[in-house]
Amino acid sequence: MTTESIRTLPTPGRRLGVLISGRGSNLQAILDAIETGSLNAEVALVFSNRGKARGLEIAKAYGVPTAVLSHRAFPDRETYDAEIVKQLREHGADVVCLAGFMRIVSPVLLNAFPDRVLNIHPSLLPAFKGLDAPCQALDYGVRIAGCTVHFADETLDTGPVLLQAAIRVHDEDTHETLTQRILTLEHQIYPRAIGLLLDGGIRRQGRRILLSEAAERAAAEIHSEAERKPTYAQ
Ligand code: GRF
User: Fold this and answer.
1) Is 167 helix (H, G, I), strand (E, B) or coil?
2) Three-state DSSP string of 121-152
3) Is the distance from the beta carbon of residue 179 to the nearest atom of ligand 1 less than 6 Å?
4) How far, in Å, CA of 126 to CA of 133, rounded?
5) Is there an atom of ligand 1 within 6 Å of 183 CB?
6) 123-178: per-residue pLDDT in tens?
7) Which residue of the set 91, 121, 150, 187 is catalytic?
8) How far away, in angstroms, is 109 Cα from ligand 1 center?
9) What is the pTM of this model?
10) 1: CA distance to ligand 1 center in Å?
């Protein structure tokens, strides 16, 4: 039994800073959830370390402020992260959502937003950290795969888990189909996980995140298109 004490995380404000490096489909899922009213939040800033990230176009299409800054122009991770923090603060961000941001964040960013930096990863952590997680899962031969929203820490894909969702792996799955089905699931759980954090009342005991009963019910309601068995071309 754990002896660590339980503490309630402070309820953050509802302004999100979303950090991306590429395609931005999770960013789009967040923006869509806000637009349809299922997530009560506002995207204050979309920040990218790559000027060519497609997610920047998505942000512009939704009328959201963007900022681009290459990490290459900075001598170290800390100086770069300090600049990100400055931009996030200037735009009044309360919570940071890493959405395909291909960089490990340093304590400079984590300490500026304590218990308020989330990340999404396409595996049931702690399995299959790092790149191409759905391919790793398929090649390993797992029967259940999924995705995880977790609090970020200084190491890759290791922070406390906030929400996970799972799907069955089918015999016909390929790297492409499993990656796509997990991505569809990501788009469902990330906005929900953000909503859980913004609604407050989340408690933490060591690594364990404890949800309120209502939050647990909401989390259990993830009915996934991704779970339906797709029809495969022969
Ligand atoms: C997603 O699979 C996410 O889990 C991982 O990076 C990918 C980003 O995709 N961290 P997108 O840019 O959100 O489309």
Assistant:
1) strand
2) ECCCCCCCCCCCHHHHHHHHCCCEEEEEEEEC
3) no
4) 11
5) yes
6) 999 999 999 999 999 999 999 999 999 999 999 999 999 999 999 999 999 999 99
7) 121
8) 20
9) 0.94
10) 35
